[in-house]
Design brief:
The protein is α/β, with parallel strands linked by helices. The chain is built from eleven helices and nine strands. Helix 7 packs across helix 8 and helix 10 runs antiparallel to helix 11.
Amino acid sequence: MKIFKEIAEIKSFLSEIKGRGMTVGLVATMGALHKGHMSLIESSKSLNDVTITSIYVNPTQFNNPLDLQKYPRTMDQDLKMLEGVGCDVVFSPTDREMYEETPLLKFDFGHLDKVMEGAFRPGHFSGVALVVAKLFGIIEPHRAYFGQKDWQQVTIIKRMVAELKFNLEVLTVPIVRDSNGLAMSSRNLRLSSNQSAEATVLYQSMQMARKRLKSGEPVESVKKAVAALFDSRAEMKLEYFELTDSKNLTSVERVNNSTELIICIAGYAGDVRLIDNMFLD
């Protein structure tokens, strides 16, 4: 497994392998890797000659400095996991390598980055789009892989790819869950054992909501039931629960069969913020 920290070095390497007609898959991460990330790498390896994993905790996507400071960094363990799953290349740049100067460029995705995550984390998706655009420009992958757990992020990245005419395919890989239903997340490393147990309320809420929504119960009524379920957990706080059109993230008040709908939820376990989602069908 090759490890690169400098843009010039990895671009030189990529020029050589692409010159031999080899295809490249990219898995962009912020480290603290888990089985969900491994599923992305395995998906990439199944379709590409070379799989690259980037590990970079991107400062421009954190609107809360404390969240950036507390974000788990487990590089040694990450590299062992990547080697174990057969990742070919790791790109792990420094802040100076990625941002020589304070960035001035901002992205605005209209409605897409103003709802849900965007409403509670202003500027977050501009920072995500900026670093992902940089990675696409540096690596120029044939395919890029993202997890379904970050559905709003995937929707925004697909829009960016379409509008900026990046010559690559964005593929989404299903959520990987613990046996108790909790979605795999790097932030789970910050949970106490009690918080980890209580955080399963996100999955339980979505399961309950899906059943009620499919039976015809109004969204507003289901939201109240989800809020009550969170209130029964001592360390959990609901931030939002939404039923949205999966393509344009527009809120939906009633289930209809003409649109692919997705349930999106976010909440806090203590001071650890968690998100999850589930397709209605």
